[in-house]
Amino acid sequence: MTDDLDAETLAFAHRMFDLARSGGAEELSGYVDAGLPVNMTNDKGDTLLILAAYHAHPETVAALLARGADHTRSNDRGQTALAAAVFRRDADAVRALLDAGADPAHGSPSAVETARFFDLPEMLTLLTSH
User: Fold this and answer.
1) ANK repeats at which positions (predicted)?
2) What's the pLDDT at 85?
3) CA-CA distance, 68 to 83, in Å (whole number)?
4) Mean pLDDT, residues 64-86 taken together
5) How far apart are CA 86 and CA 25, in angstroms?
6) Do 66 and 25 contact (CB within 8 A), yes or no?
7) Of 60, 110, 57, the residue nearest 82 (C-alpha)
8) CATH code of the domain covering residue 113
């Protein structure tokens, strides 16, 4: 599919993913509000939400969730935004995802499996007490 996109469009898409990685919540929100697909994915299946969670940007996670980002989506490796936030020990992002209805048992590895594998008892408690 990327063969069908011109260089300018690809550069714009890369910039949007970079905003998710860097926590550019306000700017990214503006683009989503203007019509950017909130569930846009890269070549690895990572959504904007997964990238924001993995890079520990809870404000960006919350902004994307408020705009309808699908917290059930997994990347090509089966990872979810919730598992990414758990791995990064980002309690604020974990809470935002749980409040939005994210399932701690969804994904492979799931958020619960991630917390157990990496011995993150505070994350496991957060997941099971929500």
Assistant:
1) 44-76, 77-103
2) 98
3) 19
4) 97
5) 20
6) no
7) 110
8) 1.25.40.20
Per-residue pLDDT at 48 exceeds 60: yes
Give how far Cα 43 sits from Cα of 13, 14, 34, Å: 11, 11, 23
Is the predicted pLDDT of residue 2 greater than 90, yes or no? no
Query: Could you tell me if 28 and 48 are in contact, meaning their C-beta atoms sit under 8 angstroms apart?
Result: yes
Give the integer Cα–Cα distance in Å for 105 and 1: 32
Number of domains making up the chain: 1
Residue 8 lies in domain: 2-129
Query: How would you classify residue 18: left for phi > 0, otherwise alpha for psi between -120 and 50, otherwise beta?
Result: alpha
pLDDT value at position 89?
A: 98
**SS3 state at 47:** strand
Percentage of the chain beyond pLDDT 70 is: 98
Q: Could you give the C-alpha distances from 37 to 20, 106, 107, 116, in angstroms and in order?
A: 13, 23, 22, 33
What does the chain come to in residues? 130
Chain-centroid distance of CA 84 in Å reads 7
At 70 the pLDDT is 98
Interatomic CA distance for residues 110 and 80, integer angstroms = 7
